[in-house]
Design goal:
Elements: H1 2-29, H2 33-45, H3 51-61, H4 67-76, E1 85-86, E2 91-92, H5 103-138, H6 143-157, H7 160-178, H8 197-235, H9 238-245, H10 250-288, H11 293-302, H12 306-334
Antiparallel strand pairs: 1-2
Length: about 350
């Protein structure tokens, strides 16, 4: 398995480079941050911006270079630069805000905030999807199956921003009813709190509950349908029927034969759930006042901060690729026919 893991990691490198190139092109053609900066200056001064100022903005943002050269500088930092660009050198590129914002520092400080939300929501959605999918399959066409199906389709149909606002209001009303602030609905941690790792984790739990529920419910619904369909297929397979005909207990059949095989499609779908949670974090963090990568990306997109947007997309791509790697490794655990040789 070690050789397979190393081989998969090596294969990720060209995939990540290709994805970064595509993201760079899309971000570059989606807007012109230089034109936006010139417009803001003209609105604030009421006068045309001198060409010298425009040239300085282009030079600072590297928009005086061709697109291929700009991508090369952003990726490697090799060439004539201002020392603030080059992913391989730990530089994420200049922000339109100038020295007021360091893109790398912002990503580094906000990464763990978003990661804990995304991981909690993804793990919770997978666990609940497996549970509800198995129950729906075992009790096919029962009232429980119809109820879980209804809840799943309801979760699929609700917009994330609307459900987030609804849950936030419900948490506020619950706090008022019990006379406590158990459900935190703003910020990602207590302002000014300092402590060790365990204390920081405990402090973050009340702030995680509602955002995690929102991301979890919007992510688990589709996965539960995959789990139900997969479980039904396995339950109707010949080897499961044979095991039951031999007198193997139903619990053993479900645990050792049916569930293990039925989890394979869910393992395939899990990285997509991770990507969905990363995308949903943009809205959730905005609603709940978090200062994570989602809020950072939202502000960057709003202000057309190209290198900040690219930084978020790059980190998201890395997280999704790691999720895919874990998914591939899980195949060998779930399916004994697969060997990593």
């Amino acid at each position: 398995m070690l050789v397979f893991t190393i081989r998969r990691i090596v294969m990720m490198i060209p995939v990540l480079i290709g994805a970064s190139l595509l993201a760079f092109v899309l971000v570059s053609v989606s807007g012109d941050p230089v034109a936006d900066q010139v417009f803001i200056l003209e609105q604030s001064t009421g006068e045309p911006v001198p060409q010298e100022t425009v040239d300085n903005i282009k030079e600072r943002l590297y928009y005086d270079r061709s697109l291929p050269e700009r991508y090369w500088l952003w990726l490697t930092g090799i060439g004539e630069t201002n020392g603030d660009i080059g992913l391989l050198q730990g530089e994420w590129g200049p922000s339109i805000e100038g020295s007021a914002i360091d893109v790398g520092e912002e990503i580094g400080s906000r990464f763990w905030i978003t990661l804990r939300l995304v991981l909690f929501a993804t793990v919770a959605s997978i666990a609940i999807a497996i549970l509800t999918g198995v129950v729906s399959a075992v009790k096919q066409y029962s009232k429980v199956d119809y109820l879980l199906t209804f809840i799943g389709f309801l979760a699929l149909s609700m917009p994330t921003f609307w459900f987030g606002l609804l849950m936030k209001e419900a948490a506020v009303q619950t706090n008022n009813a019990i006379g406590s602030t158990f459900f935190q609905t703003y910020r990602d941690s207590t302002r000014g709190f300092h402590g060790n790792g365990w204390e920081v984790f405990l402090d973050a739990i009340p702030y995680l509950i509602i955002p995690t529920i929102v991301l979890m419910l919007t992510g688990y619904a589709a996965m539960s349908r995959y789990q139900r369909a997969s479980m039904l297929e396995v339950l109707n397979s010949d080897y499961v029927r044979l095991a039951r005909a031999k007198g193997v207990r139903n619990g053993t059949v479900m645990r050792r034969h049916a569930l293990r095989t039925a989890l394979i499609p869910v393992a395939t779908f899990a990285p997509l759930g991770l990507a969905t949670a990363m995308g949903g974090s943009l809205v959730i963090e905005r609603i709940f006042g978090w200062r994570g990568l989602g809020a950072f990306a939202y502000d960057a997109i709003t202000h057309n901060d190209a290198f900040a947007v690219l930084g978020y997309l790059f980190i998201s791509g890395v997280i999704v690729l790691i999720g895919i790697l874990i998914s591939d490794l899980m195949y060998g655990v779930l399916d004994p026919r697969i060997r990593y040789e």
